[in-house]
Every structure is written in C-alpha cells, then in structure tokens.
Design goal:
The chain is mainly alpha-helical and 163 residues long. 50% of the residues lie in helices and 7% in strands.
C-alpha cells in the first residue's frame, strides 16, 4: 500500500486540483450558471470539497498502479506519465468518482441536477462522452504541475517512506 499523504498535503493538493478544474472548465466555456462547482474553494459546497480531498488521497494508489510514487525528493528525476498511463489513471479516477457519488445517493440522469442528485456522467467509462473523459484525462495530464504546488513530484519505482 502506498504511503498516505499528510492532511496538509491533501488539502494543498485538493485546492490545486479544484483550481485546475476551474481554469479548464471556464476555458471550455462553462460558468456558474451551467456548473455550480465553478466557484472558489471557499464557496465550494462541502460535498465537492470532500470529493477533491478524496481525489487527493487516492493519488498514491493510482500512481502505484502504473509503477510510480510520490516524493518530496528533488534529487530524483521526475516521471512523465505516458498516454497509456494517463488513460488508465483517468479510468480509475472515474470509477472512484462514480462510487463516491453513488454512495452519496446520486443516480444517473440526463442532466446534472445537484438538487435531485442526478448526473449524466454516472455511467461506465465506455458510455461517457469524450468531453467527460477529457475532464479526467486533463486532471491526470496536469497532475505533475498540480503536485508541485504541494511540494510533491512523481517518480518511478516502489514506494519509500519519504512523505
């Protein structure tokens, strides 16, 4: 089992992940009227903050699945994730997100409706739109830069107690 992140690192990473999400979705033309999660971290609903933290906690597990780990050591060369690895990690993140939503009482629906707890992306990866898949891929592509905000980097090799 990979070493867990400290609560401070989890919070830093969760905020950085959310900031990335804000930038990419706004660049794609989304705004608060179409996506209620496009608000600053301080205004983000509790469930969405918790989801960002859960995503951060899961990063070591996902990286271990592709032979990588996190470190604070600057003397080790950073790993570049391949397209195949990004695809695998994106699928893993979609499963994590889906299970969390279903556990919170959400169900698939034709449109995103937070009040009714419905979301069109609560389907298997194969049934997602390319735009929905790209949300997960984008998060994983920018993971090295997001991790750097928390003082972390991705390296190849087995886990060691450096966090």
């Amino acid at each position: 089992m990979p070493d867990p992140l400290s609560e401070t690192a989890i919070d830093d990473l969760a905020r950085a992940v959310h900031d990335h999400y804000l930038r990419t979705r706004r660049a794609a033309g989304d705004d608060e009227t179409t996506n209620a999660s496009l608000v600053t971290w301080d205004r983000l609903p509790r469930l969405l903050r918790a989801d960002s933290r859960a995503h951060a906690r899961d990063v070591p597990r996902k990286l271990a699945a592709v032979g990588c780990r996190l470190t604070r050591r600057s003397d080790l060369p950073p790993a570049a994730l391949t397209d195949v690895e990004i695809e695998r990690l994106a699928r893993m993140e979609h499963v994590r997100w889906t299970l969390a939503r279903l556990a919170a009482g959400w169900r698939p629906g034709p449109v995103h409706d937070a009040e009714a707890r419905r979301h069109p992306d609560l389907v298997p990866w194969e049934r997602l739109t390319e735009d929905a898949r790209d949300k997960d891929r984008s998060t994983l592509r920018t993971l090295p830069a997001v991790l750097a905000v928390a003082g972390l980097r991705i390296v190849r090799g087995p886990a060691e107690a450096v966090l």
